[in-house]
Recover the amino acids of this structure.
């Protein structure tokens, strides 16, 4: 059946800064996996978190992708225009009796949790708000759900959500929909069959799988690529002042990203145009060669 062999991938950047080497790796990996499968490749701008957004970053990211020859299919989708979809999903989960209001602040959660477990919600408001305290955020009950995903590169990941995460946030105290909810709704609504992204998000995937099951949404295939880190093992990003990647005639950043992913390079790589390099890399994309590590040190690239 054609429908089952159809592939639709996506790159979903947050506009919190320019495209750096780490985000180029994720963009290139998802692009090549899609093109290797003769699939579509979409770009979705994850601009829900307006307080963290950097003015001009969304346009800048799109221009940079295009300058690297990473041309997407169809119009770019902006999460900031899709609140109605997230509200509808929240309503479905509420109808299932799984959503509750939570009055806790971050420091209250930290104070009431044992050392090393401050990231796990202890369930304080699960059976009702404390007297006189208004709800700030909305959480979903996870009960004792065991979420399981099978990643094409990282293998099986299991998470006992109750023990390892706790009831998690769907709508934040500032009224914004949480990433976990929006990403699940959008991937399903856009008909995404394959998610290729950084391994830092592997930890979030069981929560996303849980929401997909509750909302009766299809399960995409997952491939979590190693993320680029500094020599101090910090993820490249705003905190590490990761420089913007710049496309150049010698394709240095693309070659560095392919090398980072341990992908083969064409024999005459120095003479390949950008288009030739990308076509060759898509044809020869080899997931068995990808490094299994979840973090790898980024190379020094000129202009990057
Ligand atoms: N917007 C997320 C980020 O930039 C990626 C989300 C995803 O690929 O699921 O980290």
């Amino acid at each position: 059946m054609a429908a089952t062999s159809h592939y639709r991938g996506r790159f979903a950047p947050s506009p919190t800064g320019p495209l750096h080497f780490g985000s180029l790796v994720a963009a290139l990996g998802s692009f090549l996996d899609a093109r290797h499968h003769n699939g579509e490749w979409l770009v979705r701008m994850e601009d829900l978190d307006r307080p963290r957004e950097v003015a001009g970053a969304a346009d800048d990211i799109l221009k940079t992708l295009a300058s690297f020859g990473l041309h997407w299919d169809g119009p770019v989708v902006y999460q900031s225009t899709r609140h109605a979809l997230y509200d509808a999903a929240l309503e479905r989960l509420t109808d299932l009796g799984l959503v509750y209001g939570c009055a806790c602040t971050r420091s209250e959660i930290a104070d009431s949790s044992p050392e090393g477990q401050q990231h796990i919600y202890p369930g304080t408001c699960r059976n009702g708000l404390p007297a006189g305290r208004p709800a700030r955020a909305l959480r979903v009950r996870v009960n004792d759900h065991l979420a399981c995903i099978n990643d094409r590169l990282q293998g099986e990941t299991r998470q006992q959500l109750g023990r390892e995460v706790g009831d998690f946030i769907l709508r934040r105290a500032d009224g914004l929909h949480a990433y976990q909810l929006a990403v699940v709704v959008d991937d399903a609504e856009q008909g995404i069959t394959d998610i290729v992204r950084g391994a830092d998000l592997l930890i979030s995937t069981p929560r996303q799988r849980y929401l997909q099951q509750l909302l009766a949404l299809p399960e995409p295939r997952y491939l979590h690529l190693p993320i680029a880190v500094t020599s101090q093992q910090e993820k490249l990003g705003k905190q590490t002042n990761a420089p913007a990647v710049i496309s150049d005639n010698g394709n240095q950043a693309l070659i560095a990203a392919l090398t980072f992913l341990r992908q083969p390079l064409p024999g005459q790589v120095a003479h390949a145009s950008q288009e030739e390099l990308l076509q060759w890399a898509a044809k020869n994309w080899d997931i068995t060669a990808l490094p299994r590590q979840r973090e790898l040190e980024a190379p020094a690239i000129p202009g990057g």
